[in-house]
Design a protein that fits this description.
- It holds the Pfam family VHP.
- InterPro entries: ADF-H/Gelsolin-like_dom_sf (IPR029006), Villin/Gelsolin (IPR007122), Villin_headpiece (IPR003128), Villin_headpiece_dom_sf (IPR036886).
- One of its GO terms (molecular function) is phosphatidylinositol-4,5-bisphosphate binding.
- This is HP domain-containing protein.
- The protein is flat, with a radius of gyration of 35 Å.
- It has 12 helices and 25 strands.
- About 10% of the residues have low confidence.
- The longest helix is centred in the first third of the chain and has 17 residues.
- Helix content is about 20%, strand content about 25%.
- A hairpin with a 4-residue loop joins strand 21 and strand 22.
- The chain folds into 4 domains: about 90 residues, Severin; about 90 residues, no CATH class; about 100 residues, Severin (3-Layer(aba) Sandwich); about 120 residues, Severin, CATH 3.40.20.
- The strands form 7 sheets. It has a 6-stranded mixed β-sheet with strand order 13-15-14-17-18-19, covered by helices on one side. Strands 6, 9, 10, 11 and 12 form a 5-stranded mixed β-sheet that branches.
C-alpha cells in the first residue's frame, strides 16, 4: 500500500498521519497536511468512545497530527500495521530475553598493542606511491611514454599583469597503428591537441600574488586544466618540461649559492638558497660568482647522480653568464673553511614520513620521491605536524608537536623492531642538528607554538610521555641511569616500590 509516489492520509481517531513517499510530489504533501488539519477540527465520525473520551462532535485536545516521510521510522505509526518490516518494531513486540546486566556495558575493544602492531606492519609493508598528475583522464607519471610535447610558452606575473605561467601543448600518441595489407607499423599517429596550464608559485610569493595569478589565469583560459606548482614540491612531469635545466634564483644578483635537486637528469633543478645554512653532507651545492669559475661543494655522503647534475648545471650557468666558462672546481666536504657541514646521522636513503593519529596513520607523500631513494630533500619542514615517524633508513625519529601518545610510541617501537639504528623521540623546538639536516632548510618555529624550554637534550623514546608503563620504552642503558638497576631486578620489586621509583623518575 505504501508506494514511493503516493501521498496518503491515515485517520486513527486520536492520531492522524500524512505519509509521503520518497518520490511523491511536494504539493500533494502540502494539500494533504491542510486536509488533515481540517479533519482534526471537524471531529471524528465514529460514535464509539475511544480512550475514555466521547468524540461525537470533536476530537480530544491531545490528538496527534504528524507528517511522515518514507524512510523515517515512527514507532506509533508502524505499530498500526501487523506486517511492518522494521527492526525497531520487532524488538518492541518480541519477548525480552534475560541477559547479564553488565554485558551491554562492556564494549568489545581491540587490544591497544594489537592495534599498534597492525598499524606498524601496514606502514612497513607500504610502498611510496609514484608521483603522478591526472589530466583529462590520463595519468602522467615519471617519464611517461607516448606523450609528445609540441609547444611550451611562459608568462610572468608582474605587478598585477600576467606577463610565470607555463603553457604546455601536447599530444598523446596512439600506439599499435598498423597497415591492413601487410601489418607493418606506419608513422605514429597522435590524438587530439591538448593544453594544460601550470602556475608556479615561488616560496616568497604573498597570498595576494598567488590569488591574483590564479585569477588572471582563469580569465586567460578558464576551460583548460590549471595545475598549481609550489617551489620545492614540483611534480616530475612539470620538471621534465625543462629537460633538467630549471634554475630558480633571485634576479640581478652577482653572487649565487644553489642546492642541486632532483633524483634523475630530466628532473634536475637548481634552487638558490636565501640563507646559507650549515651544508648537508648528503647534498651537493653550486656556488657561482660573476667573472669567476663555478665551485661545486660535494658532501661526503652524497649520491653520484647529484654530482653529475651539479657539473652539468655549472655549464648551464656559464652559458647564461653567471660564471666564467670552464670546468668547475670541485671541493669536498671540509675543503672550504668558510662553510659548516652537518651530518644527518643514520640517513642511509631518502627519508619517508608517516603521520600518526590516535589509532591510525598514513604516509606523507612527496612529489620528489624517486624509486631509487636518492632524493636529497624529498620533504620540507612545513610537513611536520602532530606526530610524525621519520624513517631515514638507519635511524627512526619520532617527531611530535606535543606529548606523544602511548599508541604512537608503541607503533614506533614495533615499526622499528628488528632493524639496526637508534629510535629517538624529538620534541618540537628541541630538534637536534642531525635531525634538522634531513631537511633542506630549517626555520625556528613560531614563538606562540607550545614548546618546552629551548636547549633541552633530546631524550630516548618514551621519556617525553607522562603516562603509565613508560619505563618499558627505555633501553637497558637509560633504564640503569634512571633506576640504578636492570629491568629484571626492577620487575622483582614489589608493586608499591616500583610505583614510588617511577614517581620519583617522573615516569608514572
Amino acid at each position: 500500500m505504501l508506494q514511493p509516489k503516493e501521498t496518503l492520509i491515515f485517520d486513527f481517531g486520536s492520531e492522524i498521519y500524512v505519509w509521503s513517499g520518497r518520490d511523491a510530489r511536494k504539493t500533494n504533501g502540502n494539500y494533504a497536511k491542510e486536509y488533515a488539519k481540517k479533519l482534526a477540527k471537524n471531529g471524528f465520525s465514529c460514535q464509539e468512545a475511544m480512550f475514555g473520551c466521547e468524540m461525537r462532535v470533536e476530537r480530544p485536545n491531545w490528538t496527534i497530527l504528524r507528517h511522515l516521510h518514507q524512510g523515517i521510522q515512527d514507532i506509533l505509526f508502524s505499530s498500526k500495521f501487523w506486517d511492518w518490516q522494521s527492526s525497531e518494531l520487532k524488538h518492541m513486540m518480541r519477548t525480552p530475553v534475560v541477559v547479564d546486566k553488565y554485558a551491554c556495558l562492556t564494549p568489545q575493544r581491540r587490544d591497544p598493542e594489537d592495534q599498534a602492531g597492525a598499524l606498524a606492519s601496514r606502514l612497513r609493508a607500504s610502498e611510496h606511491p609514484a608521483p603522478s598528475l591526472n589530466l583529462e583522464n590520463f595519468d602522467f607519471e615519471r617519464e611517461t611514454k607516448d606523450v609528445i610535447t609540441e609547444d611550451i610558452r611562459f608568462w610572468r606575473l608582474k605587478d598585477e599583469e600576467l606577463e610565470e605561467i607555463v603553457r604546455w601543448q601536447y599530444r598523446i600518441q596512439l600506439s599499435g597503428i598498423r597497415r591492413l595489407n601487410n601489418g607493418e607499423e606506419v608513422e605514429r599517429e597522435t590524438g587530439r591537441e591538448r593544453l594544460a596550464y601550470f602556475y608556479w608559485l615561488g616560496r616568497e610569493t604573498t597570498p595576494k600574488q598567488q590569488g591574483l595569478c590564479a585569477l588572471k589565469l582563469s580569465y586567460m583560459a578558464h576551460n583548460m586544466p590549471h595545475v598549481r606548482q609550489e617551489q620545492g614540491a614540483e611534480l616530475p612531469v612539470f620538471l621534465e618540461l625543462f629537460s633538467g635545466n630549471l634554475v630558480i634564483r633571485q634576479p640581478e644578483q652577482k653572487e649565487l649559492f644553489f642546492v642541486v635537486r632532483g633524483s634523475a637528469k630530466p628532473e634536475c633543478s637548481l634552487e638558490q638558497l636565501a640563507q646559507i645554512w650549515p651544508l648537508r653532507s648528503h647534498a651537493v651545492y653550486l656556488e657561482a660568482k660573476e667573472g669567476q669559475p663555478a665551485l661545486l661543494h660535494v658532501g661526503a655522503h652524497c649520491q653520484e647522480v647529484h654530482v653529475a647534475n651539479g657539473l652539468r648545471m655549472a655549464e648551464l650557468l656559464s652559458m647564461d653568464g653567471l660564471c666564467t666558462e670552464g670546468k668547475p672546481a670541485s671541493l669536498l666536504q671540509g675543503d672550504d673553511p668558510r662553510y659548516e657541514w652537518v651530518i644527518a646521522k643514520g640517513r642511509t636513503r631518502a627519508p619517508r614520513l608517516f603521520r600518526l593519529y590516535d589509532v591510525d596513520g598514513h604516509e606523507v607523500t612527496s612529489n620528489q620521491y624517486h624509486p631509487s631513494a636518492v632524493a636529497a630533500f624529498p620533504h620540507a619542514q612545513t610537513q611536520l605536524r602532530d606526530t610524525i615517524l621519520v624513517d631515514a633508513g638507519g635511524a627512526l625519529w619520532v617527531w611530535s608537536d606535543g606529548t606523544p601518545s602511548t599508541h604512537c610510541l608503541d607503533t614506533a617501537t614495533r615499526y622499528w623492531h628488528g632493524r639496526e639504528g637508534r629510535c629517538t623521540v624529538v620534541e618540537k623546538n628541541n630538534e637536534p642538528a642531525e635531525f634538522k639536516a634531513l631537511f633542506q632548510e630549517w626555520n625556528n618555529w613560531p614563538e606562540d607554538a607550545e614548546n618546552t624550554t629551548p636547549g633541552k637534550p633530546t631524550p630516548p623514546i618514551g621519556r617525553l610521555f607522562i603516562g603509565t608503563r613508560l619505563h618499558k620504552y627505555l633501553n637497558d642503558e637509560d633504564f640503569g641511569k634512571e633506576f640504578g638497576m636492570s629491568p629484571k631486578d626492577f620487575d622483582a620489586l614489589p608493586a608499591w616500590k616500583q610505583n614510588r621509583m617511577r614517581q620519583e623518575a617522573k615516569l608514572f
